[in-house]
Amino acid sequence: MAREASVSEVLLDARGIAKSFGGVQALRDVSLTIGRGEIYGLIGPNGAGKTTFFNVLTGLYSADSGEVQFDGARLDIGLPHLVTRQGIARTFQNIRLFANMSALENVMVGRHLRSHASVIGAVLRNRATRREEADIVDRAHRLLRYVGVDARANDLARHLSYGDQRRLEIARALATEPKLLALDEPAAGMNATETASLRQLVESIRADGVTVLLIEHDVKLVMGLCDRVAVLDYGEKIAEDVPDRVQRDPKVVEAYLGGALA
Amino acid sequence: MTTLEGKRRDPRVALAGTLLLAVALALAPFAVGAGAGIAWVRVIDFALLYIMLALGLNIVVGFAGLLDLGYIAFYAVGAYLYALLSSPHLAGAFPSLAPGLHWPIWAILPLGALVAGAFGVILGAPTLRLRGDYLAIVTLGFGEIIRIFMNNLNRPVNLTNGPQGITQIDPIGIGGVSFGRTLDVFGIGLPSVYLYYYLFLGATLLVVFVSIRLEDSRIGRAWVAIREDEIAAKACGINTRNIKLLAFAMGASFGGVAGGLFAGFQQFVSPESFTLMESVMVLCMVVLGGMGHIPGVIFGGILLTLLPEALRYGAGPVQTALFGKVLVPPESLRMLLFGLALILVMLYRPAGLWPSAIRRREFAGAGNSPENGAGSERE
């Protein structure tokens, strides 16, 4: 495959990731590299292993084999909170907000791992804790403004509209100060207007220096937004290139439209 | 939570309200003692102990959403610790310790909190992957195990004196003042139950303060996040293992303190005081008052201590007045009416009698179950 699209500096380097559930081989020796500052798309037909790969990368599943280098260090696969600490934050395909907390509190939870107050600090509420709390609230408000749901800061997350919930989840992920933001089908269920503004949001997140990994079904969105795209099919990477070339790749066309009958 | 509930109030009004409450709390034993008799002051002392327990359980059940049916075990741990460290009992098993250990309260209570907290971790560690019904079953077993240990640890070494319990426990004393007998202050005789009232009130206020501070901190938010969606909480970088263990430990430490106070107050402990019924009672206080809402839980604690007592004292005379004789013995009627009250509350006020503003809205919200966030576990 042509390597003009190769990147200046590698942020994430996954090597030979394999994962099976019982007899089903969900991922087979998947390797890919994401460069710093890229918007990297991961597409594939239903059941191709996109979300599995995502869950391995963000620590929810442990891989059967393979390893991931992230920002110069080995990633602690299988320990989600450590993965987040190392700088990968994610959203979920089926939104997972803290439904009965306010929008603001949802984002404040995202600050958990970047704050330090212990039980004693919390009970005594000394100056350091007060300053930290003020900073958490302040940053949470700024992030809500950034994604455009600040008007609903004090509403319960469950009462937000679908599009706002998606944006709130992104704000919560950004609150952990990620180097890589992994979005699992962020445009699912969105109408054209919402998708367009999501696209703007993702672009501005990248412009602010966060690398983005995007799983998406909306091919138009992926092709328009991503710098590079990888295609998974039956747990294998069958293509990785700039969008134009991926679209014309015969293997990709076959995976999506079905091959000639044997 | 302050962001949602913190309405701006005139500081002078708030100060006046606080002063009024302080005066009311300070005079409460005199008012109750004069109006209803000293037995009711004793009931109020117990209400304060139960408030501490309910607030401790509220951390585990209300905040972190971990159903615990064996909570009374931590109360037992605190009580027996006080009993062993402040009575002649241990001298029986270890003659070298004669005349038994008689540690001061300020040493025992923090130790009780610590030991109970450690027991909280012992319970929490193996149950980290469990939720809901399954966790309830394991915690129920844990509560029973502790009680059965207390019942049987009189052999081979007599640690707990088995079902007979430990007697002759020292009354609580602070700075030479024993709470076990009437204290004379400027000519006013303060009976023992009054003294305990003030001690328990102080301890309760401390527990309330710690609860409020914890709720409104990164730790409290992490607990609620775990209750709402554990996987999302992990993805937010929360070390769910440690934060859950912390919830168990904090909740248990409140129970340990209450247990120590209980042992000093009663001067007698036996396994009978720590049955499953007691765990259920404390859980009822939390659920009935308003899970996760500190004022609601306090209210639940007061109500569920006073109500059964009122029914006990009231059921007999009311029946005599209505029917001329006692038809149903008050003791059985008490639990019957109590059960009915619970059912009615759960039917008509499922969020509790005094839920937080958030939970009220949550239950008013469109047909979703309250466990919405916590229900689905897997992707």
Order of helices and strands of chain B: HHHHEHEHHEEEEHHHHHHHHH
What is the element string of chain A, with H for helices and E for strands? EEEHEEHEHHHHEHEHEEHH
Which two chains form the greatest contact, residue counts included?
Answer: A-B, 53 and 39 residues
Radius of gyration of chain B: 22 Å
Give the spatial strand order of the biggest sheet of chain A: 6-7-8-3-9-10
Helix content of chain A: 25-40%
- The mean pLDDT of chain A is 89
- Helix % of chain B is 55-70%
CATH class of chain B: Mainly Alpha
The CATH class assignment of the largest domain in chain A is Alpha Beta
CATH third-level topology of chain B: ABC transporter involved in vitamin B12 uptake, BtuC
The CATH topology label of the largest domain in chain A is Rossmann fold
Low-confidence stretches of chain A: 1-7
Average pLDDT metric of chain B:
87
What would the keywords be for this entry?
heterodimer; A: 262 residues; alpha/beta; Rossmann fold; six-stranded mixed sheet; four-stranded antiparallel sheet; 10 helices; 38% helix; disordered N terminus; B: 379 residues; mainly alpha; ABC transporter involved in vitamin B12 uptake, BtuC; two-stranded antiparallel sheet; 16 helices; 6 strands
How would you describe the overall organization of this protein?
The complex is a heterodimer of chains A (262) and B (379). Chain A is of the alpha/beta class. Chain A has two domains: 1-87 and 178-262, 3-Layer(aba) Sandwich (Rossmann fold), CATH 3.40.50; 97-161, no CATH class. Helix content of chain A is 38%, strand content 24%. Chain A is built from ten helices and ten strands. Chain A has helices spanning 50-57, 80-86, 103-110, 119-124, 127-147, 162-174, 192-207, 219-225, 243-248, 250-257; strands at residues 10-21, 24-35, 39-43, 65-70, 73-74, 88-90, 180-184, 211-215, 228-233, 236-241. In chain A, helix 7 (192-207) links the parallel strand 7 and strand 8. In chain A, helix 3 (103-110) packs across helix 5 (127-147). Chain B has 379 residues and is mainly alpha-helical. Chain B has a single domain, classed as Orthogonal Bundle (ABC transporter involved in vitamin B12 uptake, BtuC). Chain B is built from 16 helices and six strands. A two-stranded antiparallel ribbon of chain B has the order 1-2. Chain B has a two-stranded antiparallel sheet with strand order 3-4. In chain B, a hairpin with a 2-residue loop joins strand 5 and strand 6. Chain B is globular. Chain B starts with a helix and ends with a helix. In chain B, 46% of the residues are buried. The model of chain B is unreliable at 1-6 and 365-379 (pLDDT under 50).
